[in-house]
Design brief:
By secondary structure, this protein is of the alpha/beta class. It has helices spanning about 15-25, 40-50, 65-80, 105-130, 150-175, 200-205, 205-210, 215-225, and strands spanning about 5-10, 30-35, 55-60, 85-90, 135-140, 180-185, 235-240. The radius of gyration is 17 Å and the shape is globular. Bound molecules: NADPH dihydro-nicotinamide-adenine-dinucleotide phosphate.
Length: about 250
């Protein structure tokens, strides 16, 4: 078991990449802490992990609320005695063309995709600095590298996550031994497109939705690779896309 009892807090664990990552890490010896708003789905996932011989803790919470994150970290340390890492994975992608002025959706993306990541780092950092080590993995996107239809705001949020990760790494890794990674996937087959309300986008994205995407497990494997490195190794970023995606 290469993850050797590492305690890892995973946001967005109720679905898609977060769920697959929780299963992957837990079946290789990590103790996983499951955070998202859907408590029932997290409890179901905990049952699945337990049946596979893993160890999981459910901490329902909203990443846009700093207090929820603080409670999640506190609860984790009370339950497992420590916390070794955070995977900032929660995110949403209500794509729309700017001229539609769906400002509520813009704000939600900024709140979840950017501020949610900042809240997570603020909550866990005192623990990681005190123990002089740990891992922070932020799920950015191919969208940090290029624009796609209706993605002006979404791409901006994922660019922010990628650049924030680089700043974190430079400030934290050499001085405190905290390794930081930005994961940048192309299209992955999950529920992510369910929040799109702009009907024009659905037509324009058809090509992307029709190709063979990555599975959530492919990203879970990439995250597992990051966490199973020796402490001296910092994987700065992983840009991982479907073979069919241009
Ligand atoms: P899903 O829609 O399957 O999962 C999104 C997760 O985020 C859910 O568990 C949801 O849980 C959680 N979430 C959303 N809002 C909040 C919130 N306010 N507080 C806590 N949790 C929240 O999508 P994916 O698995 O695809 O997405 C995971 C990450 O991967 C996202 O950051 C996404 O941007 C990124 N990504 C995805 C790609 C793809 O093609 N699928 C490509 C590149 C990056 P709940 O609703 O229960 O709170």
């Amino acid at each position: 078991m290469s993850l050797n009892n590492k305690v890892i807090l995973i946001t967005g664990a109720s679905s898609g990449i977060g769920e697959a990552t929780a299963i992957k890490l837990a079946t290789d010896g990590a103790k996983v802490v499951l955070m998202a708003r859907s408590k029932d789905k997290l409890e179901q996932l905990k049952t699945t992990i337990t049946e596979k011989g893993g160890n999981a803790l459910v901490v329902p919470g909203d990443v846009t609320k700093a207090g929820d994150f603080e409670q999640a970290v506190k609860h984790t340390v009370e339950h497992f005695g420590k916390v070794n890492g955070l995977i900032n994975n929660a995110g949403l992608m209500p794509l729309s063309y700017i001229k539609k002025l769906k400002t509520d959706e813009w704000n939600t993306m900024v709140d979840v995709n950017i501020k949610g990541v900042l809240n997570g780092v603020a909550a866990i950092l005192p623990e990681l600095i005190a123990q002089k080590g740990g891992d922070i993995i932020n799920v950015s996107s191919m969208a940090a590298h290029r624009y796609f239809p209706g993605g002006a705001v979404y791409c901006a949020t994922k660019s922010a996550v990628k650049m924030f990760s680089e700043g974190l790494r430079q400030e934290l890794s050499p001085k405190y031994g905290i390794n930081v990674t930005s994961i940048e996937p192309g299209a992955v087959d999950t529920n992510l497109t369910n929040t799109i309300t702009d009907e024009d986008i659905k037509d324009d994205l058809k090509g992307m939705l029709d190709m063979t995407s990555l599975n959530a497990e492919d990203i879970a494997n990439a995250i597992h690779y990051v966490l199973s490195q020796p402490e001296r190794v910092n994987i700065n970023n992983i840009y991982i896309v479907p073979s069919e995606q241009q």
